[in-house]
Every structure is written in C-alpha cells, then in structure tokens.
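Batch 3, record 17
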Amino acid sequence: MKPRFPVNLIAALILAPLPAFASLGGNLSSVNSDQENMKAQSRVTRTAARYSIHESLTPAGTTVREYTSESGTVFGVAWMGPVPPDLRQILGTYFAVYTNAKNVRRAGHRHLLVQQADLVVRSHGHLRAFSGSAYLSNSLPQGVSANDIQ
Amino acid sequence: MTGEMVSLRLSREFLAAKLCALLALIAILALTACGGGGGSGGNGGSTSTTGSQTATNNVQAIVVDAGPPVIPGGAINEPFVTITVCAPNNPGNCQTIDHVLVDTGSWGLRLISAVLTPALAAALPQTTDANGNAIVECTPFADGYSWGPVKSANLQISGETATALPMQVIGDANFSSIPASCSSQGQSSEDTVATFGANGVIGVGTFAQDCGLACVQNANLNVYYLCGASSCQSTALALAKQVQNPVTYFANDNNGVMISLPAVSASGAATVTGSLIFGVGTQTNNGLGSAGIYTISNSTGYFTVSYNGTSYPDSFIDSGSNGLFFNDSAITQCSDNSGFYCPTSTLSLSAVNQGMNGNSGTVSFAVGNEAAIPGSITASPLLAGINGDPASFDWGLPFFYGRNVYSVIEGKSIGGAVGPYFAY
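Prediction for the assembled complex:
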C-alpha cells in the first residue's frame, strides 16, 4: 500500500480518529449506517484547507478514501487494495449511473474510464492489486483537482 | 547502446526464435531428438526413441485478429490461441476452442460456459470443499466481474498437457444467481463471449495462482465462494484449490512462457501471427539469450517505470492490455471520452523500466491517433490511453510487437534470477 498524497497537502494535514463511510454525493450524516454496511474500520480523518479525507479499511483489506467538502458533501472516493471495494455502497446513488454507462470502446479488462455529465470513474488493476477513483466533476471544491482524489 | 542496435538485436533474436520453433516442429515430425542440449528441463516428452528423447512441442501459434465474431466492433491488439480441453475422467471427451486470450496479466484458465459443448460441460468435475460445497469464483476485473464454478479439466496446448487443472467456467447456468457482494465489485457482469471479449482467457503470468495468499488468509475477499443448496458464502481457500496458472501444471517447460510477436508497422496490420512458447531456458527455442531481467513485486507483480520525470511504481507488462496505458496531460485525448489518446500527429516517446533488482533500460515507443485507426486493423503499435491508476504505466500488447518477452513464474530460478520477473 503506497499512500500518495500531494506533498503540499501532507504539510497541511491534521490527523484525528473519526468514523467514516458515506456515499458519493451524500453527506456525513449517513456515515454511521454506511460504515455499518461496509463493516469497515475507520482509520483516520485528514483535514486539508478545503476538504477532509476519511480513510477506512474494508474487511477485504482494501483502503477507501472519501473526500468531503466544507459543507459535508462527499465529492470524491478512491480505493486501493487486493480487490475492488463495495462500489454499490461507496458510489451510492451514482452506482446506477456507473453500471448503466455505455463504454465507448473496449480497452481490455485492465482499465475502465466512465465519463458522464457529472460522474467520472477510473478503474484499474487485476486480482491482487486494484485501484480507482470516482468524483463528481460539478461538485469539486474550488482549487481541488481530479488528481487530488487518489 | 543506440536504438538501431537494440532493434537489430531484437530482430536477430526473433529470427532465431522462429528458426528454433521450425526446427522443433521438424524434430517432432521426424520423431528425432533435438532439444536435449538446450537446458535442464527440456526433455521428457511423451514420445521417445531408443537411446534418445524427443523434446515436447512447446510452441503454440498466436493470432492477433478481430476475435470471435460477436465482439462489438471487433478486437484490437488481442493475442489469441486455440486450445483443447478434455474431461479428466474421459480423455475422449475433448473440445477444441479458438480465440482464447493470452494474458500475462492474469493467472489461470477461464472459459465461457456457452462455448462448451453440453457433453464436455457436464463432464468437467465440480471442485468442492471437504463438506461437498461447490467452489465458485467471482473474478474481479477493472471493468467488471466474471462469476462461475471452479472445475477440473485437462488442458492440451501445443504438446503440453495440464492434468486435472482447477479452472473457471464463467456463466454456468447451474450458478445463475450472482451474490450482491460479487456484483458490487464492478460495473458489469462479463459472462458471455460478447461481454468478456473472447471465448476464454489463459492467464500465463508470473504467479502460480490467481489470488494467492490473500485468499488463503482472508475469508472476506468475495473472490472464492462456497455454494450450498441455497446460498453462497465468501470463503478463504487453500492455494492448491485456487484457479491455477496452467503452465505450472506442465510436466516440463513449467517455469514460465515466452511470447514472440513480429514488429507491426505504424499503419497497423489486419492479422498478426506469432508464438506462445512454454518454458524459459528449458529448450533450444526459449533461451533468455541477452534479454534483460526485470524482477517485480512478489505481491502485486509491479515494477517501476520512469516517464517524463515521474516515477510510476505500479507498472507492469501485460499482453491482456490492448494498448499502452499511462498518463500524460499533454497528449490530446479522443473526443469520444473513451480515454484513448488522439494526438494530431504520431508522437515518439520513451520511458525507463526499472526492475526491483535494479536493472534498468530505456524503451522507445510511439503514440498515435486512436480515432484514425481503420476498423479493418486488428493490430496497431500506436494504441495508447490514460491509466486509471495515477501511479501506473501499463505496457500492453504494443510493447510485445517486435520483441521476445519472457515471463518467469514466482519461485522459479532461471538465468541467475528468481521469479516473478519479466525479461525482454
């Protein structure tokens, strides 16, 4: 597991234990029930200038990071581990958007890019090592880029 | 070393490999000894003559073409082989299956259920746990998941045989109910030839099992399941019960593979043929020669690529990826949101591979306009796109054109190094 955060962000981080697992597009009030559904262990919450990162570990050993804005909305999620996480849970209402999206052209089983009007999902890897991210392109806080979600 | 010298060396190696393959074929036809001097494990074929032995035919033809006709739009840069599968308990109950994808990025044989004859499908024994529960797998991919039982089959490919090989039958009607914990892992079910993109896949990469220790130690991965009469439950599973890399089941030539594909011009090709050669340094046709060895992580299979001043530690060499997948925001993406690159003119680029063993070497490559590749082209060295992992550079099939690429399985020693490693 190789944590990859922008260096300037690391300097601004404050670590604090907090339960976390909301769904993309949802808010922090759903954290407790979502965490229960995933049976995930909350590890740390990091706070940056314009957003917070809630990191959890699923029972399968996959690390999930959820990015919340100052108003508490989950605008991005990212994962890394031996298997993909429960995408139905972490994408929330956007899981249906994801599964209904038509893939433009087959790129094999190792990569997937879904770009809808609002939702962007990038998925990568093979058994033993998966990673990916999803974000709401219209809800990124000012100054936050897609590359910050990983 | 200049680029010209590199390509000259590779070209000579390729010709030598083709010559050896031809000699091996002649040797088998003539039932005369040939491969005895090539290495430690090349002998022991099923046919022998007095006082000498005949090397096993270890060369399987590869074709890069449009794939099975049902694939929407046709395949591009996908290497296929034809295999024979037999029932372990009835050697006469066999089926020849074409268009099985050769994949150095996965491990194990998987076949689409609909491709199998009813007679063979019924004769492949279901693998079970000690209590008789069926072992069923949810194989996750980046773009979906494949659900189906783990069965036992005899595989014949070139002159090699894997007996009682645990493999997956995808989309088996006897296991039609996919658990939510499986379907939550991916975008879509890939259980037909059209959705899977091939009649099956033969994973011949650098690991001996598809999941490995993680599935031994953790019952919560949602990869292997035990299915009773009414429901399926995620389970831990011993290594020996997991879907196996078929190469490790061969009597000889079982330490890895060599893939040999010719160079493909920038304009592409409608069909390309090459060779999947079993074993590394086991016969006269699969020696490492002067190939550079790049060892990789024994947990993830990754090594490091440096490109444009950035280090990508999640990188790998993968015949199952149909393009070169890496991130460069300066390259124009195609307007169809496919994630492929569409530069206005072909770009000449380079990257540096660095193995865990410290060996490094520069690789030159080119990126072209995906939208400009005609539909009749099934092999293009210029196909490239973005990578979903910002730390990854994926050397897909374009990397294989004009090279001999060796993949050595974990724990196997050859050429002064221990697998898992790639060499080229």
